[in-house]
């Protein structure tokens, strides 16, 4: 393992993952992580690839889950199924009378002093139906204590979520920017100066493709995902045109 391949803020996680892998390699144990971000999953995969006798599976419950658990196992267990490591629930409520959003569900869960990493993706359908992926070890707790979203009473129904597909929904807007530099794009999204963005980045408040990013001169590409603390998550969807003055017209979607 060479730490120089990772950002400094990732060193602690990288060391932890390396310890997990060694436990599996030498003790032939199975290691199930909590839910990981896409970047954390990438780190786990890179480190596991250094070991011939260890493999990793990722389980998120939903068909194309973003947040997934890593199941690190000895290679001889690669034929085993581990899909029961994630439990799916439908959040039942009077959806014809009230509207509940993703942030409200997550807020109500974290208000129970629940580790965010125990909760996977939260899927809110246009029909109003809501589904949540949970670590199996946490199932009994959530059944007992997760009884309200805000002021609205709810009940939980255990369901099979493997066939449900998580699709991102975006509120799309056009932005006219001078370049595709990260600080320029973020300044437009925050309606802030580039110097303010620079300070915000130094404080660790901006992620690029689920990874903390402090290189303000990074050249953004279509498809990049930018997460800005207290502002939300954005995706560069398309470059529409270039103005006569050479400025770039881009379409950026904010996750809703």
TrEMBL record:
Domain RNA-binding S4, chain residue ranges per copy: 180-242
UniProt keyword Ligase present: no
CDD domains membership: S4 (cd00165)
SUPFAM superfamilies named in the record: Alpha-L RNA-binding motif
Alphabetical keyword list: RNA-binding
InterPro entries named among the record's database cross-references: Nucleotide-bd_a/b_plait_sf, RqcP2_RBD, S4_RNA-bd, S4_RNA-bd_sf
Pfam families according to UniProt: S4, YlmH_RBD
The keyword RNA-binding appears for this protein: yes
GO molecular function, one term: RNA binding
Record-given protein name: RNA-binding protein
Organism name: Turicibacter bilis
């Amino acid at each position: 393992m060479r730490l120089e391949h990772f950002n400094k803020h990732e060193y602690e996680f990288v060391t932890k993952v390396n310890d997990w892998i060694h436990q599996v390699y030498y003790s032939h144990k199975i290691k199930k992580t909590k839910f990981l971000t896409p970047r954390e999953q990438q780190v786990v995969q890179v480190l596991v690839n250094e070991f011939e006798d260890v493999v990793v599976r990722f389980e998120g419950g939903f068909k194309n889950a973003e947040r997934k658990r890593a199941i690190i196992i000895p290679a001889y267990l690669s034929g085993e199924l581990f899909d029961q490591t994630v439990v799916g629930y439908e959040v039942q409520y009077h959806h014809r009378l009230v509207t509940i959003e993703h942030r409200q569900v997550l807020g109500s869960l974290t208000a129970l002093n629940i580790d965010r990493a125990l909760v996977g993706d939260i899927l809110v359908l246009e029909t109003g139906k809501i589904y949540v992926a949970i670590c199996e070890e946490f199932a009994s707790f959530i059944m007992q204590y997760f009884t309200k979203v805000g002021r609205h009473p709810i009940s939980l129904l255990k369901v099979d979520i493997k066939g449900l597909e998580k699709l991102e929904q975006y509120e799309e807007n056009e932005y006219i920017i001078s370049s595709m530099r990260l600080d320029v794009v973020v300044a437009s999204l925050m309606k802030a100066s580039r110097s303010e963005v620079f300070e915000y980045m130094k404080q660790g408040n901006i992620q690029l493709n689920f990874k903390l990013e402090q290189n303000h001169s990074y050249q953004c590409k279509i498809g990049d995902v930018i997460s800005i603390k207290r502002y939300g998550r954005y995706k560069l969807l398309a470059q529409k045109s270039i103005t006569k003055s050479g400025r770039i017209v881009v379409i950026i979607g904010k996750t809703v």
